[in-house]
Design goal:
Blueprint: H1 2-28, H2 36-50, H3 57-69, H4 86-102, H5 119-126, H6 128-145, H7 155-159, H8 161-172, H9 203-208, H10 224-234, H11 264-267
Bound molecules: zinc ion (2 copies).
């Protein structure tokens, strides 16, 4: 049982870490820089750990930049406040993501550019064969170690891990929790210590200071991914050019404009 649960937790943590580290903070926001080689390593691990629910960095970045620009308005691709319900929000999210990624939906020019691309790896990650192979692979530890058939009910969570994390953040992060900042959307901070999505559930802090690498604002808030990213920078794997700090309650002087105020290019 410990092996099966350990496998589930490891897949959850590694998948959501690559989402927040590579897709969100790097691809969508460019909060730090990497050498081309390090970028490829990170992209490879994103495919490996997201596996059957690998999200394309370009599609993710475009969708996410729209979310910041139009947060909780009719043009937000995934606001719980402008959706008919949880399912409706996720269907709209998936449809818009697929359109932006495939190029059938054209985003505003200001959202374009600055995301990592690796066409051959993206083709592998987006193919049905790869997705099915990952789905089959996830069943192996269950067949070998699950003490009861009920454990197999966890398999769909493995298969759709990436969109599941997105759905939790998009729904809960704009619906449940407290607010540190009065900005013009309805974002919330859901947990004090975000052990579920490693920092992503500090939506209110993040919408107020869109370019701050640390999603925690108060002394007692913990953004776990931030500390891992700082460790990666200390080891030289990535480079944090100029770290922007948010402090509660005052807006500090050296914070770059967030995506509400500026184009992604300006935010770099
Ligand atoms: Zn949000
Ligand atoms: Zn963001």
């Amino acid at each position: 049982m410990a092996i099966v649960l350990g496998f589930f937790v490891a897949h959850w943590v590694l998948s959501v870490f690559m989402q927040t580290f590579f897709l969100h903070r790097y691809a969508a926001h460019r909060m730090f820089t990497m050498s081309p080689r390090a970028e490829k390593v990170a992209h490879f691990f994103t495919l490996l750990f997201q596996g059957s629910s690998y999200l394309n960095p370009r599609g993710y970045a475009l969708l996410h930049r729209e979310h910041h620009a139009f947060s909780d308005t009719d043009r937000d691709p995934h606001s719980p406040h402008t959706s008919k319900g949880f399912i409706d929000m996720n269907v709209r999210t998936a449809t818009r993501y697929a359109g932006l990624w495939r190029g059938t939906i054209q985003p505003e020019p200001r959202f374009l550019g600055g995301y990592p691309t690796w066409p051959s790896l993206e083709r592998v990650g987006d193919s049905w064969l790869t997705r099915l192979a990952f789905r089959a692979a996830y069943t192996v530890p269950y067949f070998l170690f699950a003490p009861h058939w009920a454990f197999f009910l966890l398999l769909p969570f493995h298969w759709f891990m990436g969109p599941l994390h997105g759905a939790i953040v998009n729904w809960c992060g704009h619906k449940y929790g407290y607010r540190n900042f009065e900005n013009d959307d309805r974002s919330k901070n859901t947990l004090f210590f975000d052990f579920v999505t490693l920092g992503e559930l500090f939506q209110n802090n993040h919408h107020r200071f869109g370019q701050s690498l640390n999603f925690a604002a108060r002394a007692w808030e913990v953004d776990p991914a931030y500390w891992v990213i700082r460790a990666l920078a200390a080891m030289g794997a990535i480079k944090i050019e100029k770290e922007q700090v948010m402090r509660f309650p005052d807006r500090p002087r050296h914070v770059a404009p967030d995506l509400h105020d500026a184009s992604p290019a300006d935010a770099e």
